[in-house]
Amino acid sequence: MEEVGTGLLDRLDAMQRVAASAPGGPLLIVAGPGTGKTRTLTHRIAYLCAEMNVFPHRCLAITFTRRAAEEMRARLDALMGDGAQDLTVGTFHSIGLTILKENAKAAGLGAGWRIADDTERTAAREQAGDDDAAYIKLLRQQDLVDLDDLLTMPVALLRDEPALVDRYRRQWQWIFVDEYQDVDDTQYELLRLLSPADGNLCAIGDPDQAIYSFRGADVGYFLRFNQDFADARLVRLTRNYRSSAPILAAAVQAIAPTSLVSGRRLDPARVNPESPLVGRYFAGSTADEADFVLRTVDELVGGLSHRSLDTGRIDSRAVAPGTLSFSDIAVLYRTDAQSQAVVDALSRAGVPVQKRSHNRLRDRPGVQVIAQELRNAGSGTLAARVKQAAQVLAQRYAAPTLDAEQLAPEDVWTAADLLMPLARRTGDDLTDFLQEIATGAEVDALDPRAEAVNLLTLHAAKGLEFPIVFLIGCEDGLLPLRWPGGKPTDDEIAEERRLFFVGLTRAQDRLYVTHAARRFRHGSEREQSPSPFLDAIDPGLFERIGDAVPARPKDRQLRLL
Ligand code: ATP
Ligand code: MG
Question: UvrD-like helicase ATP-binding domain: from which residue to which, for each copy (predicted)?
């Protein structure tokens, strides 16, 4: 037994190996943050194909984002070489698209069908008013489908057509789903149709990182996996390769009150008695909070002082100064509005920042107009046509108008740069190119090589890791988030706590949590108290940094008013 496939499984720990080499049948892998989910899933696929006579073309691996799919594909290529070519790896939407392409006629679509772009969708919405059925009809009359259709239409087809179900079950006998805690009703139904109750379905995920219920995800599907899929085998991964022991201890305590994983634990793979505690900074104001981030970045990366800062203090307890670069640092926050003060403070001091905001290509300014323009224009390679279209549009937008929404020529050129790699990747097929954009090709605004501090929302930080993490705005009303007059339900608070857990577990070596005593929110300056989520963490795990900084004269004045 030991020698079977040892080569492949060598790079896994004992439990990862159990998961990777488990026999067929339903398999649920409950795995906490930093326990190597992608590593385990890719090694399982490689192992089954290399050692268990599973054919790659019988395997379907599903992820939620294109970025995750691309990463999985790259790792499988590295592990399996040419064999990986026959695997189907994609997002739920791309799998849906594949099924729809193969059955367009049965779905009632004409030969020239395609995915509607934003303009076409908006037009149909406006014409249909509130009538969802009418909206779909309008699209269908033009042989258009929208993004939801990429899942609902294949589900409807399979539901009505047992022969089709049989066909796809024969085709994809092994199914692997990453981040299973995030499936929604339609994705779940698709999986139920594609996999028999005793099928070779392997789902991996962490219910405590379910943070997408606002988008329809339902962690309930994860929790009842072993009811849905007969005699499911359960494997847990608890060894964390990412974070220091104090960070992990704080994270586990933070999630404990409403953890969805019984006996939740995370064991640090590396234990270093020198690991610093979790830094906790009591800021007077948001400006003070931003200053703290700047000062600490300066201490960690070093070399800024001569440029713009008057602090020369080096914190000897931190990671050795000078060994870190800006890109090792992430600042995480609950709402995008919180990022401004930090961006301002860092930029003023000459610290480069990169922010991830819209990560869908089609949401970027300029992308839609270029896509439209491409339908009219030219010949030549797609890349050349993108450039042509950008030239035409940049000229058009060079003339100023009173339209506040109008694009600037720079937007068009930036969009053209973003579209180029996709144009090269899709070859010269315009239809594929436009479908990629419509189905949500992502631009990763975070360039891992860029020498800049990363700023991201907690949602955008999911799945990532950084040596140094600041989780700012750990305040009641932000974590958990509360709108004026709104009162979150218990379920919503539990989801906010999971978001907090996701944030804490992004950190490898050094984690700072900060909160400000006063913050400008919803149009006025408000007194803020620390997040109740912090109360779940043993105070002994925190190192309190600085004292509550006295309010600045300006702030004091505001307060008196
Ligand atoms: P998350 O839930 O946050 O997405 P994850 O389970 O996907 O976490 P990974 O990002 O896959 O975790 O792994 C975390 C880190 O641990 C990575 O840097 C990975 O290379 C490393 N790692 C995973 N397994 C091992 C192992 N057996 N030996 C050494 N390093 C490992
Ligand atoms: Mg992951």
Answer: 10-244
**Averaged pLDDT of the chain:** 87
Which range has the top average pLDDT, 65-69, 134-138, 235-239, 348-352? Answer: 235-239
CA of 28 to the centre of ligand 1 (A): 18
Q: Is the CB of 34 under 6 A from ligand 1?
A: yes
ipTM of the complex model: 0.98
Q: Which fold has domain 6-106+173-237?
A: Rossmann fold (3.40.50)
Q: Is the CB of 239 under 6 A from ligand 1?
A: no
Which protein residue has the closest C-alpha to ligand 1 atom 7? 37
Tokens of 361: 């290509």
Does residue 312 or residue 517 have the better pLDDT? 517
Distance (angstroms) between ligand 1 centre and the Cα of 200 equals 24
- Cα(464)–Cα(26) distance, rounded to whole angstroms? 28
Tell me: pLDDT of 557 over 60: no
The answer to whether 205 and 180 are in contact (CB under 8 A) is yes
Q: How high is the pLDDT of residue 555?
A: 41
- Regarding the beta carbon of 206 and ligand 1, being less than 6 Å apart is answered yes
Q: Which two tokens stand for residue 29?
A: 């892998």
Residue 170, H or E segment: helix 162-171
Q: Annotated binding residue at 489? A: no
